[in-house]
Inverse folding.
């Protein structure tokens, strides 16, 4: 549970400057939610992610736990790449962020599939997270495309 809390804290710190800076001024796809929604959704998701990890830890599910940690590591990379990278390298950071989030999507699918064999509740708790990051992937892609057209 602590690793999920650490990733959540790191993500919120890494995104603050970007959300209020360049991201607020950037063009976004029409299905982008208001900025306040991200904090609400991620708070709920990190709770689900933490409980899922705890259930996997209780089962001593090494394979699923390894994937669980791997997806959290990749999750922690996306925010500084997307929000922090843009002021440094421009739209390329959005495309790199898109590559990172696609890897995250795949890792979460693998985590769910592996967790399903040892703890169905742990796997099911990750489904809303998967749905959200798939949606976030479309937002990232849209921002990258719109940024490339500017």
């Amino acid at each position: 549970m602590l690793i999920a809390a650490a990733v959540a804290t790191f993500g919120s710190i890494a995104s603050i400057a970007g959300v209020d800076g360049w991201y607020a001024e950037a063009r976004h796809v029409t299905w982008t939610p208001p900025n306040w929604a991200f904090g609400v959704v991620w708070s709920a998701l990190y709770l689900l992610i933490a409980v899922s990890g705890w259930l996997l830890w209780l089962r001593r599910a090494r394979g699923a736990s390894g994937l669980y940690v791997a997806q959290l590591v990749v999750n922690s990379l996306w925010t500084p790449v997307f929000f922090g990278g843009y002021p440094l390298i421009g739209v390329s950071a959005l495309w790199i962020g898109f590559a990172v989030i696609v890897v995250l999507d795949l890792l979460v699918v693998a985590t769910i599939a592996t967790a399903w064999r040892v703890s169905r509740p742990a796997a099911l708790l990750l489904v809303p997270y998967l749905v959200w990051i798939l949606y976030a992937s479309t937002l990232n892609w849209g921002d990258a495309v719109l940024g490339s057209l500017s």
